[in-house]
Specification:
heterodimer, A: alpha+beta, Elongation Factor Tu (Ef-tu), domain 3, 8 helices, B: 125 residues, six-stranded antiparallel sheet, 4 helices
């Protein structure tokens, strides 16, 4: 099947984007260079095309009940236009996808990973409650992310409404560069910034206006998107969790609200809590520029205890960073970790939370 | 794409400059541009033996790892120690400050088997 183009494809090519196929779309992996783009986001601002992501709307009288039954976080806790990170589990407690869920005025908006859009829609359709309407609007929507300490300075002059009071993980309807959109103070980089959803046909106008901004945000590709999220220890579905791992094993217990009532996969998680986990995703950091890649084996002392799921070079810390599943008894700070990097045993230390500690998100 | 006329090249994108009986070796401008951000370079030590067409180290970029293949055989007499702390020199000056190792050639005749600039340009065109 031919890969698809986002509304911004021609612009990426014109900007010198190195195009690659990702999740069925042609996306820029980099323009000037991954490290350069990464640093721009940490220091000033970068702009990303994230139009490949999937978007669904859920509406109807029983929408809240339905969403609470198919996701792990508590949808009832959302104030109007508030946003939450969540997950959809299968009956075995495995993660079908992680997602971001928006409560709007007359519906809910779900934003899912591009690679899982079709699978997620099929799953949600199969579990639909009566009186609930589920729509896949992915093709009609384009999305741009502006991320970095200067993001507000770039978006505010272009927005019709005052965005200075928009809090982290909150959203609002407005327009940017005259284009009606949904704006949220969210992102996948750890920096302050905005994700902007608009009509696919008009997304280009927003992109052009943002790039023309005096602050000169740098166009950033998927390569920098990955190095930025890994520095924050943000999980990537397909690498760090999938349908064979539970959110508890993946260290996402904080988005699981066991007390909200029943939801798909809850009984498996309850059992895991009672019996104890067998493995746990941990963060590991090396002292050298020698960096781990996915699949590399992890040792505690002389014993092989796990493998890297996401690994790479941290441009901010100039060392190797990784997430890895490790057998539970060894998933702690005092373990003597090392990672096998193509035959060399590289020492690694256990890191809790983000590797990069100075991110600017509000 | 820089391809200095006076250098010799391999099909694996290494370059070689002859200085008497010593060869200075690095990777080409084309190689570094294909790899992207180079983060780490693994090089041999002074005194190590290298063999023509065999790898002597690796270049690690954010998205890929590549072996560095030796153009000639001999003994490593010098290693560019600046590269460890500043691998970006390979991008900035692949044929100058970005040099990697110097080899005392055991058989200078091996240089004749390498590509001339014009032939190398043909490969990367």
């Amino acid at each position: 099947m031919e890969p698809r183009k986002t509304p911004l494809y021609d612009r990426h090519v014109k900007l010198g984007g190195k195009m690659v196929e990702f999740a069925g779309f042609l996306m820029p992996v980099q323009y000037g260079g991954i490290v350069e783009e990464h640093r721009a986001v940490r220091r000033s601002a970068g702009v990303f095309d994230v139009s490949h992501m999937g978007e669904f709307t859920v509406s109807g009288d029983r929408a809240l009940e339905y969403l609470n039954a198919v996701t792990t976080n508590d949808v009832a806790a959302l104030e109007p236009f508030q946003v939450q990170y969540s997950a959809m589990l299968n009956d075995e407690g495995g993660v079908i996808d992680d997602l971001v869920l928006y409560r709007r005025d007359s519906d809910y908006l779900l934003v899912v990973n591009a690679a899982n859009t079709a699978r997620d829609f099929e799953w949600l359709s199969g579990r639909l409650h009566e009186g609930v309407e589920l729509k896949n609007i992915s093709d009609a929507i384009g999305q741009i992310a502006v991320q970095g300490p200067q993001a507000e300075g770039i978006v505010a002059p272009l927005a019709a409404d005052d965005i200075s009071g928009l809090g982290y993980y909150n959203s609002m309807n407005s327009s940017v560069a005259g284009v009606p959109c949904l704006l949220s103070r969210t992102g996948y980089t750890g920096e302050d910034g905005f994700e902007i959803y608009a009509d696919a046909a008009r997304t280009g106008e927003i992109w052009d206006a943002v790039l023309a901004s005096d602050a000169g945000p740098v166009p950033c590709g998927l390569g920098a998107r990955d190095t930025l999220r890994l520095e924050m220890a943000f999980r990537l579905h397909g690498s760090d969790m999938d349908e064979t791992t539970t959110p508890l094993e993946a260290g996402l217990g904080w988005i699981v609200k066991m007390d909200k009532g029943d939801f798909t996969g809850r009984d498996v998680l309850a059992r895991q809590r009672e019996e104890g986990l067998k493995r746990r995703l941990v963060g590991l950091m090396t002292q050298t520029r020698r960096f781990p890649r996915p699949g590399f084996k992890v040792r505690a002392g002389d014993e092989e205890v796990g493998a890297v799921t996401s690994g790479g070079f941290s441009p901010s810390l100039e060392c190797g960073i990784a997430l890895a599943y490790v057998a539970r008894p060894h998933a702690k700070k005092t373990s003597d970790f090392s990672i096998d990097v193509r035959g060399e045993k590289v020492e690694a230390e256990y890191v809790k939370g983000p590797f990069y500690k100075e991110a600017s998100h509000k | 794409m820089q391809v200095p006329e006076e250098l010799h090249y391999t099909k694996d994108h290494e370059w070689l400059r002859v200085e008497g009986d010593t060869a200075v070796v690095g990777i080409t401008d084309y190689a570094q541009s294909q790899l992207g951000d180079i983060v780490y370079v693994e090089l041999p030590q002074v005194g190590d033996e290298v063999a023509a067409s065999k790898p002597f180290g690796t270049v690690e970029a954010v998205k890929a790892v590549s072996d560095i293949i030796s153009p000639v055989s001999g003994e490593v007499t010098e290693v560019n120690d600046d590269i460890a702390a500043a691998p970006e020199k390979i991008k900035e000056s692949p044929y100058g400050d970005g040099w990697l190792i110097k080899i005392k050639m055991s058989d200078a005749g091996e240089v004749d088997a390498l590509l001339k600039a014009a032939d190398y340009k043909g490969i990367i065109a």
